[in-house]
Specification:
The chain is an alpha/beta fold. The chain folds into two domains: 200 residues, 3-Layer(aba) Sandwich (Rossmann fold), CATH 3.40.50; 106 residues, Four Helix Bundle (Hemerythrin (Met), subunit A). The protein is built from twelve helices and six strands. Strands 1-3-2-4-5-6 form a six-stranded mixed beta sheet, sandwiched between helices. Strand 5, helix 6 and strand 6 form a beta-alpha-beta unit. The protein is globular, with a radius of gyration of 19 Å.
């Protein structure tokens, strides 16, 4: 077991699973199922199949059967909040999803399985998404197999990220918090025949991102957050971000209440010890979590710390740190209230 800012132990067998704190029940149970090799991949990745009885109307279509038939997808992300949301979106659409919580587990999964598509977080502790993708591509090619398409997942999109993703072989680029319809469009475009892909009109007042291509700096990136909304509209924003699905909202809130306090503790220790790497990682993931509910004026404090940690600018980090801790705690307190779950 490790904190979010710790890499795997150097003497650890790469095939052994690693649980990243905060630990979700689904991840722990998946790793404990050691005698169910026939029921789950030997890699340590957790399998999630679509089991719900209802889906949001925009996703219900004849494409669900085609999605289930394409084979499993692999979602790689160290954040429980992001995993809960993205996994649910994909499962609701009919996809079968395996989950890996770090790059090493993703590599092990790729060695043991063939995936139709891999969704890869770019920033993870121990091994970033680009390095993990390179090793996974090599594993497929060593077996004489064509690698699946990779989709980059990130909390921010810079020219450097885009260029590196294109150069290394990513097929598309999605910004967190992930918009449900753009996610399904993007995956459909890469794994389904064109006639079976989800076709939806753009949201009012916005152009939909074009699946299969990474936008340049002049192209607005798809973003489910409505950052200009006042704080009082956070329930509507949360429900919108969750694609209108209450079970996804519940999973998001549960993961948020586990992950955010642990990230705050990690950030506090990093600031105390002047550990710029740990501070950057914790702030980056806090930013991603807060964007699901908080207005831009609040989550951008985490972004300011992340950017300052890159420069080891401790005065700027100290300036924002206590304010960010208070903001994060306020959202934890708010989401713990029974009335926090919005209703459509």
């Amino acid at each position: 077991m490790a904190r979010v800012d710790e890499a795997a132990a150097p003497d650890q067998d790469p095939s052994d699973p690693v649980l990243i704190k905060p630990i979700l029940a689904e991840d722990l149970l998946g790793c404990l199922r050691v005698d169910s090799a026939a029921a789950r991949p030997a890699s340590g990745a957790d399998r999630q199949s679509p089991t719900r009885n209802a889906s949001p109307p925009a996703i219900v279509s004849e494409s669900a059967n085609q999605r289930a038939a394409v084979g499993r997808l692999l979602l790689v992300d160290d954040s429980p909040v992001n995993r809960a949301v993205i996994r649910d979106f994909l499962a609701l659409a009919g996809y079968e999803v395996d989950v890996a919580i770090n790059g090493q587990l993703a590599i092990s999964a790729a060695r043991a399985n063939i995936f139709a598509c891999i969704l890869m977080d770019l920033q993870m502790p121990g091994m970033d998404g680009i390095e993990a993708m390179g090793r996974m591509i090599a594993s497929y090619r060593d077996r004489g197999l064509e690698p699946p398409p990779f989709i980059a997942l990130t909390a921010h999109a810079t020219a450097e990220h885009r260029e590196r993703c294109l150069r290394e072989g990513m097929r598309d680029f999605l910004v967190k918090p992930i918009d449900r319809e753009v996610l399904i469009r993007t995956v459909d475009a890469l794994v389904l025949p064109p006639a079976d892909a989800l076709v939806l009109p753009p949201a009012d007042g916005a152009d939909a991102a074009v699946p299969g291509s990474i936008p340049d700096e002049s192209t607005p990136l798809a973003d489910a957050s409505t950052d200009d909304e006042p704080r009082g509209d956070w329930r509507a924003k949360l429900l919108q971000t969750a694609g209108g699905d209450l079970q996804t909202v519940e999973a998001l809130v549960e993961a948020f209440l586990i992950e955010v306090p642990a990230l705050c503790e990690t950030l506090a220790l990093a600031v105390r010890d002047h550990d710029a790497i740990a501070a950057r990682r914790a702030a980056h993931t806090l930013k991603s979590c807060l964007r699901y509910v908080a207005p831009a004026a609040e989550w951008t404090r985490a972004q300011a710390i992340e950017e300052a940690a890159e420069r080891e600018d401790w005065p700027t980090i100290d300036h924002h740190h206590l304010g960010l801790q208070a903001i994060a705690q306020s959202w934890v307190t708010r989401l713990r209230q029974p009335e926090s779950i919005p209703r459509p």
